[in-house]
Each structure stands twice: as structure tokens, then as C-alpha cells.
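Researcher: I'm preparing a figure for a lab meeting and need a structural model of a single chain. I don't have an experimental structure, so a prediction will have to do for now. The sequence is pasted below. Please return the structure as C-alpha cells so I can convert it later.
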Amino acid sequence: MNYEFIIKSAVILALLYSLFFFFLRKETFHRFNRVCLLFMLVASLLLPMVHITLSHPSAVNEAVVASTTYITTLPAIVVTPEAHTPTLTWNGVIVCIYWIGLSMMLLYLALQIVQTYLLIKGGLRHTDKFGNAVILKDDVKSPFSIFHYIVMSVEDYEKHRQNILTHEQEHVRMRHSYDLLLLQVVKILQWFNPFVWFLENDMKALHEYQADEAVINKGIDAKQYQQLLVVKAVGNRLQPFANNLRRGSLKKRIIMMYQKKSNRWMMLKALFIIPMTCFAIYAFATPESKVVKKLKTKVAAVEQTFQEIAAPAEEQTVEQPVPVVEELIAEPATPVVEQAVEPAVAEEPVEAEQEASAEATSDSIYGVVEKLAQFQDGEAAMYQFLAQNMKYPKIAQECSVQGRVTVSFVVEKNGTLSEVIIARNTADTKQEVRDIEGEDANITVTSYIKKDGDTQYLSRAEYNTARKALEEEAIRVVNLTSGKWNAAEDKGKKVRCKYLLPISFRLR
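Model: Understood. Here is the structure written out cell by cell.
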């Protein structure tokens, strides 16, 4: 699931509903307010999919991208002398909580649908003059309508037929159930967003205000109708798309019947929604692609490249920056995103030349793709595999060398790995490192030799060997995952994708 879409959708709904709450909620033009609420629901689903490009990303967009980067990057693995699987990160906990909430919402919705079906099924039924199916059942405590069905008890039909039917027929005529259907979709996706629950209460209240107003306008005695509302202000309904006669605050509904109509000029307050919508589109605008941005300034470089065919420059591959997530070690913390440094190569004419060649593009290494490469059995299985196979080199333990080794690798289109190299090694030791006269610092030391005297130190050769041992172990284990990946995809095609995997070796 695209969690960035969910976050953007929730923020947009919160912004738009806040305007409604402060400017329109207490006004009496119920039809207009209903349209505004429906617009907010639709906008929360569609605006996150509207993509415009800016030369620089907005602050809001950067914050959202940063909060969802954990979905597309590799957290660090911590290796101790007794390696173990990394603990669950806070990001993982949040994702689990979201899916638990969504599953509970779906389960509750299924329960509501089943109960509604059982209430509609059977009973005495006939069709009213508007084509609605009127269902009479003895076990219905409070009348309700859903789509073109009106359900009530036999007693209510005999004693309060006109008032109840008029009320529920208005719900059906104005298609209020479809509003609630759209609301359910948004509420399931954004169950964590308090604003969607506030919007639900306001929408259902508006439905009742509209139906009450229609009943009074048809000449039904207001006091008699209000007494019916009081009598029916008990019972409970679970139907998700149903409009219930007793639904909503009874006090507010009665007050609304006598409230003075709002001045129509007050509708102009809704114009605030337009700049807020524009702001949302701008805030979540996609930064202009680096490739597109560079192409605008590289036309001259392309022409110059073709003019120099007689002495072509050596073809090079420009690596794209790859997002890296900092490790989570002692205390759970939100991953911090950093960017890998681009290699210092002749970018300008070379990249333009590659983009002009279809063959070069097909072999390009992608740093940002629509669907990232994934370990076949999932991310958790990958870390378990790495932890089970990673061993802390003995020489590194003896020399007390620990720290981070970052492995760079490319996932090929067939799921194998290539270009597995060490991108960075920050491992170090707290011991003193000495250059021994006459000793080659690059020789490989098989084991640490305890020095004479009270002062303990490492020779440069021992230190270098320990650091190299960490690098070799990291490369060895990463290579074991070759062939166990599903390739990345971009625009429906499998592509090569580069990763950086930080591995922290830590002594206890």
C-alpha cells in the first residue's frame, strides 16, 4: 500500500474540514454544506494523485516523503559477536498498528452489512408510490432507510406511517446512502484520522436536517413530528449506509427546525476552500526530476558530444544518489534519511549522451523507481537470513575493532546481485594504533599478538586487517542473497536498482 498517499489524503481532509468547521458548520443551507463535505471526501482521494513538478520540493512534501521513506529503503543490521535478528523498528510498529486498525474496520463493516441484509431479508413488503421497497418487521425498534429500502416495524406503520415514510422517502430521494458509502471508503483508509470521524457526524446530521426540513415543508405538524422524534430517540442501528429516524442529536435537530435561515451571502465563505485546495496541491507537488532538469541545460552539451565523434569521450555510468536509512541500535528512533554522495565524474555531457541512447537507458541503474526490488521472502526474512549467516570476524574481536560498514550493491533484472562493494567503512578502535618501523602496514595478520608491557596497542597492520575482515564478511553475506531478489520495476519494466545496506558491527 502507498503510505505516502494515505498521509497526504489525511492531511488534505484535515485542512479542508477545518475550514468547514470554522466557517460553514453552523449555517442553515444544508444542501450546500452537504456538497462541500462530499467535495472534501473526493478531494482527499484525488488530490494526492495530482502531480505537478516544482524546481524545488515544498517543505510539506519533504516532510511526507521523509516520513514514508522507510518503505523504500534498507535499515541497518546490527551484528554482535552473537548475531541476532534486528528488533522491530518504530516504523514497523506504526505500519502494524495501521493494518490492525484497517482490518478491524473491515471486519466491523462486514458485520454491519450482514446485519443489514438480515433486517432487509424477509418481512412484509410492498412498494410505495416512489418505487421504494417498504419492509415491515416486528423486530425493528427504530425505522431506517438504506438505498431504496425503507424498514420499519408494523406498529410504526400503523401509528406513524405518514411522518416516518415522508422522512425516510426524503433520505432515499436525496441519495444519502451513497454519501455514506463514499464516507465508509475514506473512513476505512483513514480510520486513524480524527477529522474523518468529525466529518461523519456532521454529514449524518446534515442528512437529518435535510429530511426534517422536507417533512415540515410538506405540511406535517412540527410539534407532532418532534414528539415522534423523542419517542424514537432510543434503539441502536449498526447499518453503515442507513439513515435512521433517531440518528443525530435530537436537541440540535429540533433547534435547527426553528433556526433562522442563514443569509445566502454566507455561502461565499466556502470560497476559502479554493485557496486551501491550491495550497494542498502545491504543498505535495513532486520535485522536478533531476533528469528533466538537467536536460534543459544540456542541449548544448549533447550537440557538442556528437560534434566530437572523431574523438569520443570514454563512456561512463553516472550513479544516481541512493537513499540510506540510519541504523536503529540502542533506543527505538525514527529512521533518519541521508543521501549517498554522487561520485565525482564528468556528469554533464555523459548523462545527456546516455539519455539519448535507448541501449544505455535500458542498462541504467535507478535510484528512484515505482516499485523497489524486494527480497523474495520479505524484508523480515532478509534480515533474519543476514543475521543467521553473519559472523563477527575473530581478528576484529581481538583488536576491538567495531563500527559501520556500508555495502553497495545492484539488484539486476533477474534478481541476482552485482557490483557488491564497500561504499563506506567507519569502523574504528579505542586502542592506540602505532606504525611499527620496518613493518608493512598492508600485510595480512592472522591473529592479534599481545604486546609486552603495560601499554597495549595495535600495529597498523593489525588494525588494517581487522577493518578489512569486517568488509570481507559483509560482502560475503550480502553475496549469499544473490538470486533471492525480485527485480525493481519502473513504468512496467524490470530495471536495475542500486542499494546501500549499512551493517553495524558492535562489541558488547
